[in-house]
Amino acid sequence: MSNYEDEDYFVPLEDQRVFGAGITKKRVPFVRSSDHELSTLTSSAPNTPSATGSSIANKYLSIVMPKPSTSSSSATASSLLPPPGATPDPTPNDRSRSAPPSPTATTATCEICNLPLPTSEPETDPRAQRKHESSLVHQVCLTHSHPPSHLDRTRHGLRYLESYGWDPDSRLGLGATGREGIREPLKGKLKVDTVGLGAVLPSPTSTAAEKRKTEKVQKLNAKQMRKGHVEARRKGEKLREMFYRDDDVLRYLGTG
Amino acid sequence: MVDRRPDSEDGSRAKRQKMDKSGTDPRDNPYLAHMYADTSSNGNSSSQADNKNSAFAKLQRHKTTAALAAKVEDDDFNPFTNRPYSSKYFSILKTRRDLPVHAQRDEFLQLYQQSQIMVFVGETGSGKTTQIPQFVLLDDLPQAQRKMVACTQPRRVAAMSVAQRVANELDVNLGEEVGYSIRFEDMTSPKTILKYMTDGMLLREAMHDPDLNRYSTIILDEAHERTMATDVLMGLLKEVVLRRSDLKIIIMSATLDAQKFQRYFNDAPLLAVPGRTHSVEIFYTPEPEQDYVEAAIRTVLQIHATEDEGDILLFLTGEEEIEDAARKISLEADEMVREADAGPLKTYTLYGSLPPHMQQRIFDPAPPPRRPGGRPGRKVIVSTNIAETSLTIDGIVYVVDPGFAKQKIYNPRIRVESLLVSPISKASAQQRAGRAGRTRPGKCFRLYTEDAFKKELIDQTYPDILRSNLSSTVLELKKLGIDDLVHFDLMDPPAPETLMRALEELNYLACLDDEGNLTPLGRLASEFPLDPALAVMLISSPEFYCSNEVLSITALLSVPQIFVRPASQRKRADEMKNLFAHPDGDHLTLLNAYHAFKSPEAQENPKQWCHDHFLSLRSLQSADNVRMQLLRIMEREELEMISTSFEDKKYYENIRRALCAGFFMQVAKKETQGKSVYTTIKDHQNVLLHPSTVLAHDAEWVLYNEFVLTTKNYIRTVTAVKPEWLIDIAPTYYDISTFPKGDIRSSLLRAAERLSRKEKMRADSGKRR
């Protein structure tokens, strides 16, 4: 045994073990996979982005009312929700609602959000229609214009792509029609630590919180405040000027 | 091309007629001469063709069945060479028939005959890479068409080794009927009918032969790896098949995401063959690990202590991490042997920059028990993701997967390609797990939670084309005649910004004109299997009277690092490197080292000399080889090979100017404040000189070969340059009016002033004369 001790003595510092002898002291636990064996990829297709009005409404409901039982919450929901007659499988909670419209009226649906319109004759009741149109669900489903692409319009490469019919504002990638590719380049994230997959280190967040605390304590005198104020205003003006002087922006705004 | 009528009817008739000596030979009948026009034109091959028909007579093009093909294979004579088969042939044939693909030969042939494009899915170990091309040979009969069958591989080594294997299986000499073609090496002959090649080589061939007329069937193997060249080839072949109805395409993939290929090729039929793999049980950690390296080491030791016999494969990310972990594992294992009477554990490492003989060691058998009847020994291989697809190691039963790999990513905004440690994909994780089931049922230990697997990992690894600089690909596409890069049908089209960047870079390099058309320089540059910047540098080097030297530098930049710096002898290695150091930078230092290597003194015993000087013999030799290949292209393109006299004081300056001609977009200027901090031109990235540089003085302007993104931004392989040269050589890029006010602009202005003053002086002195 003494031999070993001698050996340990001469192990240079950098070569010394990082964790103690005997791995049994701190085992890495493992659990069996739920589907047990290596199987082919289950294409767990995430919810398609083309959400319909009702799916958004349902999602919203599930957030707002984890346990839909109180009458008050169901009342607030009714402004957003289709009348219960539209749902194929009404829950007991739905049945408890006070005044469900007659099921015959539910055939009319909004073209945009695919939701049944709230009243039996939507055309004749502009107020109800406006209420529906201003509802969150309807607004989410509206197609709306997008801001123009950030690409610098003077770039030579863009000119080339445009000459072959690519529109930077089309929000489409390159490639054959109908199978367009990604719109933005992939982004990498620099990883320099050896933190495992899915693990969150508690330390950086706590230090950040501490930092915030110390920042709060800092006090400024009047002069510093004034200086900061002037600085901020100058910055804002500069930014505005830069923005409104841009030809592309003017063109987009339609004043140029 | 003349049709040689391979149909068996014709062949057998000819044979019968030949034997029938009593009647008049119809060959002598002048009215029937047209029927034999081709065979009589080259008498030698006609007899060969007749002989060939003796075996191939049983076959009819695109009508072969498995039974018919088996008959030909069981024949005594090799129909390809007309020699009797060796005894080895039949023993190999027996093992070939045991491969999983063989059971589905008929199904394969039917689909192949019916369709122009098909997708073939065979898991690792199914034998697809060696067998499918042979199945095709006996059905497509390319020799009768004077065409070839091509089978592409993503890696050079695979192309070479598979070609060798298939040549053995067919009992022919490598390089004759079966050959290979990789960058800088062509092992084929006019006899070749089956050619294994890298996908990049096929793409280069397409540049000169856009319809790929030399081939009757093209097999794209390992398509699931989605290399840049395979992706471009698929887009290209999709167009070629419209023009060539006689061309058949097989896409081979090892993973089951083949539906994506099917959809891409307009619902091509699919055939799947199960691999010879065993079940793999998968384990997750219940909680995320705080340190995946430590957890990995512990897991390996835990397996060694508690699990049955069987070797372990651990995936880590990079050389340093791997060597470190391997060292810790062996230390701990020794302790376990001493204290707990564990079996012996041998540790091997595996990564790309490891020399081949060291890589070969991973195939050594596991160590035996220390005494008869003792606990069995095992080996553990600590590897990068090379072992995920490229290399197959039998005997692995346990896989430890922390879920990370170094992956390339390209940022077109700052034009930097970097290798970052990032989470792998689900497909990649499954591939890793599959490695445990090669010999018997295995186990895979994932160092993350099942939840993380499902939620944090993307489904598929992004293909190369989305993570690379596209300038060389765009140049290739332009050379292939594809101008509409917007609608070119790639499986995964790159981001518009990445493509724009590539177009702009090529425009600055004058490979494309302002309208985006290929210039003569661009056409010339596409002839070189190099990055466009390197190619342009090489092409313009004669203008600077140093093409010999620039050619050497280009070759040295195309091979792995020549300077070796072992961890134990860093100081000595640095001293040796300083022998070659040139104060003006690393490119010139490379050149000095190369010249020293070529000196008669070093060539006496290059191995010893390299060892003494801490240089990599392998890198220098491959640089030599690359140089020779590039020289051949330069001679073919009639580029002048010249040097400035070494005594001339402009010897090194000329080389530095020539470097600017290719790398003027990779330049950084020193910050006025701050020590040794540089800013890259136009992209405004703060960078530091890499500690390995030999640059002796504080150069204000430097040109760099590589941008290394780690915790700090480094530029590696740098050489001092002058702004005057840059303005002179790349006036469009260094158009001062395009630079924002600041340090760089004023420095450029001063340089321009100096330049014009010098010009004026020259003009004045000219007038006086």
Automatic annotation (TrEMBL), chain A:
Segments of skewed composition (Polar residues): 39-54
Please give the start and end residues of each transmembrane region.
none
Classification via InterPro entries = G_patch_dom, GPANK1
Comp. bias regions, Pro residues: 81-91
Q: Which PROSITE patterns match?
A: G_PATCH
The biased composition feature labelled Basic and acidic residues covers 124-134, 209-218
Q: Name one Pfam family in it.
A: G-patch
Which positions fall inside the G-patch domain? 153-202
Q: Where is the composition biased (Low complexity)?
A: 68-80
Annotated spans, Disordered: 35-54, 66-134, 203-234
Q: What is this protein called?
A: G-patch domain-containing protein
User: Which organism was this protein described from?
Assistant: Aspergillus lucknowensis
Automatic annotation (TrEMBL), chain B:
Q: Where is the composition biased (Polar residues)?
A: 38-54
Alphabetized InterPro entries for the sequence: DEAD-box_helicase_OB_fold (IPR011709), DEAD/DEAH_box_helicase_dom (IPR011545), DHX15_DEXHc (IPR044756), DNA/RNA_helicase_DEAH_CS (IPR002464), HA2_WH (IPR048333), Helicase-assoc_dom (IPR007502), Helicase_ATP-bd (IPR014001), Helicase_C-like (IPR001650)
Q: What is its EC number?
A: 3.6.4.13
The protein's UniProt keywords, in alphabetical order, are: ATP-binding, Helicase, Hydrolase, mRNA processing, mRNA splicing, Nucleotide-binding
* One term of GO molecular function: hydrolase activity
Q: Which SUPFAM superfamilies match?
A: P-loop containing nucleoside triphosphate hydrolases
Helicase C-terminal domain residues:
299-481
Q: Which family does it belong to?
A: Belongs to the DEAD box helicase family. DEAH subfamily. DDX15/PRP43 sub-subfamily.
Q: Indicate what this protein is called per its UniProt record.
A: RNA helicase
From which source organism is this entry?
A: Aspergillus lucknowensis
